[in-house]
């Protein structure tokens, strides 16, 4: 008589009522049955098949004997205590947990371990995979590694295929997230390699127009935990973004994505280093991911909100570079060119927050100053001064300039505090001009500008000059110059020291101004607007030559001295003073004293009547020209 087949534990029906502490048995029995049936369906041999049954049975008995509910932690601890059978038991419980979480065994835990995923793909997915594999052959690399990439991509396609996805157009961000959540690997490095390959595959599909570009960037930013979701925005930020949704769709995210490579290529042509380029690439593509995940197009308001939220969520230390990148990208859209010289303001101008009756007259006044040919810095000073005055008028309750009185102007002057009297006087001068402008238009009573009086008394400033030791320190520092910045500083200092040129003339000097044959420099002075030709000493010519050959970056700028970092355009006068202080000849800040005190000190001999060897980079005093008859030495 044949021995009856022994029933497995999950084949024995459980009673209808179980104590709460044993309710876990129902799910455990059902999922254990799924694991065993899965092994039989996939052709597991007797050893592997019965090892799985034994592991599930022994673990169930262990839980019941110790009054423990099923949990992944309990399974891990039990496996660790049953070495050397851990490996066989461990894979069984991994498959069991897959049924608990996903309802099926995941590819990494499949039986047998190595699956040729490409053989399991439909004809449609296999066609896309073959096209991707052909693109890999054009790239240099080991064939075995190319085969690994192909298999990893096939694993992804197999994973979404068994989830019911049969077309690349059906792959959404939620589908991609669900797959990445359940696709487990034995190590973080392995997880990263497989995840990045998914991104490469989706990038290849996006270039063919089969899916959005943002899908290809999702795996990369997922690995670094840099995905900004709409729920991360505050309620106020969400309202701002939603208010421009329809307007943003006029510039679809796909069109925005197509412009990013050309923008980055042009940005790099200006000589930007690796760090700002990396930050710019991160900013633009992460914003793209945010736009496509939430169904937005590109809009500057959305870009501003994204920057502010990213700064707070990730403690983004490079947010200023991100803001500047988006600012330059906005100009790129308007002008079809990158203009790195443009200034990016993180905050709007104060005068923009003023009432319309103030802004109208300020804009007309500023427009007039621009037509008069004032420098941009001077125009900005006019705007700042007048805005300060108008802010007071608004706070005082005025709703029109016609309500302005002399008493109100005096009250403003008494309450308008500055750190120095010179600063206050500088503001008052410009406000006075604005009031005179309003008088000419008949808006305010004539003569009201006289209500602002001067606060700054005549003073004489002691000018710091350099002695022989200081000059020697500058010359010695230039001998050790090697880096591009040091070579530039040395050439600037010697030009000012030996030729007596002002700082403004030095930085504005053009390559065409140097006559190497005549050993001279011909310039139009910035301050006097007069043309002069100055003999160029040998050491100055050699310093400039060394800078041009070994220190000056390739640039289209006509100026001799340019910035040391991209964009390589003209420098400001401040570089002259910074170059001087780097040599450490002086650390003193010029003091301001009254005329009487200065005359007293000069009479007592404390201050010499004749200054020695002034350097025009730090002061407004110019050295007399010196005739040089020495021939230029070749470096």
Spell out the blueprint of helices and strands.
Blueprint: H1 24-41, H2 46-66, H3 72-80, H4 86-101, H5 123-137, H6 143-161, H7 173-182, H8 188-207, H9 213-223, H10 235-243, H11 245-248, H12 253-269, H13 274-294, H14 300-313, H15 319-335, H16 356-371, H17 376-395, H18 406-415, H19 421-440, E1 459-461, H20 468-479, H21 484-499, H22 503-507, E2 514-515, E3 520-524, E4 531-535, H23 538-551, H24 574-582, E5 592-594, H25 595-603
Antiparallel strand pairs: 1-5, 2-3, 3-4
Helix pairs in contact: 1-2, 1-4, 2-4, 3-4, 5-6, 6-8, 8-9, 9-13, 12-13, 13-15, 14-15, 16-17, 17-19, 20-21, 21-23, 21-24
What can you see in these coordinates?
By secondary structure, this protein is an all-alpha fold. The chain has five domains: 9-109; 117-223; 230-335, no CATH class; 350-457, DNA polymerase, domain 1 (Orthogonal Bundle), CATH 1.10.150; 468-603, hpI Integrase, Chain A (Orthogonal Bundle), CATH 1.10.443. The protein is built from 25 helices and five strands. The protein has helices spanning 24-41, 46-66, 72-80, 86-101, 123-137, 143-161, 173-182, 188-207, 213-223, 235-243, 245-248, 253-269, 274-294, 300-313, 319-335, 356-371, 376-395, 406-415, 421-440, 468-479, 484-499, 503-507, 538-551, 574-582, 595-603; strands spanning 459-461, 514-515, 520-524, 531-535, 592-594. The strands form two sheets. The chain has a three-stranded antiparallel sheet with strand order 2-3-4, with no helix packed on it. The termini are far apart.
The name CATH uses for the topology of the largest domain is hpI Integrase, Chain A
Order of helices and strands: HHHHHHHHHHHHHHHHHHHEHHHEEEHHEH
Give the biggest sheet.
Answer: 3 strands, antiparallel
Task: Note the total helix count.
Answer: 25
Strand content: under 5%
E-strand count? 5
Q: Output the structural class.
A: mainly alpha
Shape: elongated
- Uncertain residue ranges: 587-635
Distance between the termini: 110 Å
Domain count: 5
- What CATH architecture label of the largest domain applies? Orthogonal Bundle
* Helical residues, percent: 55-70%
